[in-house]
Amino acid sequence: MPGMTSTPSHPFGTLGSHLYLIVGIIITVAMALNLAVYLFAESKPRTDIQKTEAQNIVATATSSNTTLSFLSISFGAIWIIDGMLQLRNGMPNGFVSNIIRPAFVNAPSFLRPLGDLGAWAWNINPFRVDLATAWIQLFIGMALVSLKPSKTWRLAIYLSIVWELIVFCIGNGFGLFYKEAAWYSGAPSAILIYLLVSVELLMASNGKNKFPTSQRLGWGLGIFFLVGTLLGALPSEGYFKPNGFFTMITSMAKNRQPEVFSNLLNAAANITEGRGSIISLILISLGLIIATALIVAPSSVATIYLTIIASLVMWATVMDFGVFSPTGTDFNSGLPIIMVSIALLMEKRKNLSNIDEPVKSVSDKVLLS
Predict the structure, then answer these.
(1) Start-end of H helices in 111-185
(2) Do residues 49 and 355 make contact, with C-beta atoms less than 8 angstroms apart?
(3) C-alpha 200: how far from its chain's center?
(4) Which residue stretches of 44-106 are H helix?
(5) Which 8-state DSSP code applies to residue 175?
(6) Do residues 75 and 197 make contact, with C-beta atoms less than 8 angstroms apart?
(7) Per-residue pLDDT reduced to its tens digit, 127-184
(8) Which among 36, 56, 175, 312 could disulfide-bond with 188, CB atoms 3.0 to 4.6 Å apart, if both were Cys?
(9) How many helices (H) and strands (E) does the chain have?
């Protein structure tokens, strides 16, 4: 994955202990907010929905919007952390060489001017451009974390969609052309999961509910896994070589990161040594199973848990959590996929409740307007 370069191991990692503390506080606050939203929804009496149509709408909205609030708060926190990571010392001078150029290394010639455009824009003033991109992400994150949707919240959603498309096309080179692209390395690009969530939040805020939230999110994840699996199946990505996985994972184990994570990567590398072809076949098969299941049965609990477990294992090993390099500015695809999968579980639980479905499309619009 572009940006995942190697640096010497360190007990605290490149983030430094103070930044770990700030990141930890943000994650803790986000988890507390999500728990508060969940408990508030659960405390609502279900009997009230039988009184009037207005009460029906409010009661249903409370339950339905728990998922949307979870996504908004979770991805808001992720955006804030991404914005902080954007300010790393290695970003201004390392973004072009470590992220843009590798993203277009195997791109068709007609697409490479996009990479050149991105490099040119960045090199106008790397420090100021880096600061501007950080503030864009921080604004999006802070707006999404706010519990009450407003005009600012919607503006942040529209801005996030535009920004996600820019990052995908220019910063990630469409997520298809960098070396070692596969679903287990984060391909076709974490920013597509952000885009999926932004579009879902926007559609919900506008009352666009032709298909249930679980279907839209499940289909989006399913397509993501399908594309990532097909990329990983290409011999040119190098995973079928005997030490394809071993070389990549041992390289990431040298990153400056907490020692426990380096040890985890070294253990994973030892398992993969000389077994590139076998592990590739297993992961390709697993990716196809997950993709098919998410598209066909996105509400299946077994499918959701399989997605969470597989994403967590790959995030901790092949992706190295996405942040332990001088130019690592996000958690890669692992964490976003896990967050969306948890949202699918919440939708599943909601659909098993006795709340009437006919007012669902109205409820989302009411609560998010």
Answers:
(1) 112-124, 126-145, 151-166
(2) yes
(3) 14
(4) 53-85, 91-95, 101-103
(5) G
(6) yes
(7) 999 999 999 999 999 999 876 678 889 999 999 999 999 999 999 999 988 888 999 9
(8) 175
(9) 15, 0
